[in-house]
Specification:
single chain, five-stranded antiparallel β-sheet, 10 helices, Alpha-Beta Plaits, Aminopeptidase, eight-stranded mixed β-sheet, 2 domains, alpha+beta
């Protein structure tokens, strides 16, 4: 017995407990976040000046992969322009995903924000990072550098996900299928948010971003000469009545305790003053946080449209895209509470929650819940003195680069805590 005890003591004197079991102190994380601050600002600045549209992020992907190559991490390309990189600690443990989007928008950049001239302006005419994806990339690359330096104290694997075409949903399906074999245990993402003050990090369980559905249908009549409307079946009057009927039904047939927005944004019909068209197109979106209520909304749209069109001797032709396009982004309760505790330890008093800050925009991050429990956080970028705070998808949109450090810190803290 004494020999066994002596062997045990000598073994662990020579081979101490792995440093991977030692917690990474918050002071270490904060110091490393500060150390990469200049780097993430440089990355964000370059990407902001060189934006690329969804599905066309060729130079963006090349630039990011060049940064990853400096760390020597393997990269796997996904069909399209998306890809992922893996940091393998070569120690058994869990696998986590950290995700960013990489595309920009077809919005010409206004050189002014809400107060002054922007420090970074797009050099690609007609295209700009008017939603903050340049900042998202910088955050993920900053977190990657830190986690690479801390890998001796970590276990398991980290998958860094760079998703093509979030704005158009062009890359999400290929990315989901590419990641499926990796058996990821949890996936973290973030989004810069213009309505939250710099230094604020929003972490809330449940649905925090809306699901979305596409409204797309034609009201079909019979065209003719405008001088004899009686010899035609005018789809314009039918379309006008359909819109009125939908808005009334929306107020009287849906559950008023559940958010369900009706955003009709298009009505097209006719090319000439003296020609009654054959058809009129109606388009838009709905937003919802409850899937069943979203389905009910489309049921109302279809029934009201068909009934009113019939009353005008018209018909309705629904497009294939008519229906739910994306589920809400819903944070896993257990993972979210874990994340809130971890990030609050790093940034006391900076973490907020509450349903008042949920976002009516939609996000392809919703689909990562097909693979693993997910958590999506909002990082505030509003600074009234600087002039950042314009709405997303707005030509005056700008970010306070001081906010990026909070995104990097929160993402890094999540990873080091979860992988313990």
């Amino acid at each position: 017995m004494r020999t066994s005890i002596l062997f045990f003591f000598c073994f662990f004197s020579v081979f101490p407990l792995s440093s991977a079991r030692q917690a990474v102190k918050k002071e270490v994380v904060l110091d490393k976040v500060q150390a990469v601050d200049a780097y993430i600002r440089e990355i964000r600045g370059y990407l902001h000046e060189h934006p690329e549209l969804s599905g066309q992020e060729f130079e963006t992907a090349q630039f990011i992969q060049a940064e990853i190559a400096k760390l020597g991490l393997p990269v796997t390309n996904v069909p399209g322009t998306g890809f992922y990189a893996v940091l393998d600690t070569h120690k058994p443990g869990k696998s986590i995903g950290l995700r960013t989007d990489i595309d920009a928008l077809p919005i010409p950049e206004n050189p002014l924000n809400l107060k002054q001239r922007k420090t970074r302006i797009s050099q690609n005419e007609g295209v700009s990072h008017a939603c903050g994806h340049d900042g998202h990339i910088a955050i993920l690359l900053g977190a990657m550098k830190i986690l690479y330096e801390l890998q001796a104290q970590l276990t398991g694997k980290i998958i860094f996900i760079f998703e093509e075409g979030e704005e158009t949903n062009s890359g999400i399906s290929a990315m989901i299928e590419a990641l499926r074999p990796l058996k990821i245990d949890a996936i973290y993402g973030n989004h810069l948010k213009s309505s939250l003050e710099t230094g604020t990090i929003y972490i809330q369980e449940g649905a925090i971003m809306a699901g979305t559905g596409t409204i797309a249908f034609d009201v079909v009549g019979q065209g003719g000469h405008a001088s004899r409307p009686d010899l035609s079946v005018n789809p314009i009057f039918a379309a006008a009545n359909i819109l009125t009927g939908i808005s009334i039904a929306w107020n009287n047939q849906r559950d008023i305790t559940k958010t369900l927005t009706l955003g009709v944004s298009q009505i097209h019909g006719g090319e000439a003053y003296n020609v009654i068209p054959n058809s009129v197109f109606i388009g838009g979106t709905i937003r919802f946080f409850d899937f069943e209520e979203g389905e009910k909304g489309f049921s109302i749209l279809r029934k009201v449209s068909e009934d009113i069109a019939r009353a005008h001797n018209c018909s309705v032709r629904f497009h294939d895209k008519m229906g739910i396009a994306m589920d809400p982004v819903a944070n896993d309760t257990t993972l979210t509470r874990f994340t809130r505790t971890a990030v609050s330890e790093l940034y006391p008093g900076k973490v907020i929650s509450g349903e008042q800050n949920i976002w009516y925009a939609a996000e392809t991050f919703a689909r990562y819940s097909e693979l693993a429990p997910t958590v999506f956080t909002f990082v505030g970028i509003k600074n009234d003195i600087l002039g950042s705070g314009a709405e997303h998808h707005n030509d005056r949109f700008d970010i306070d680069e001081d906010a990026l450090q909070y995104g990097v810190g929160a993402m890094t803290q999540f990873a080091v805590k979860y992988l313990r």
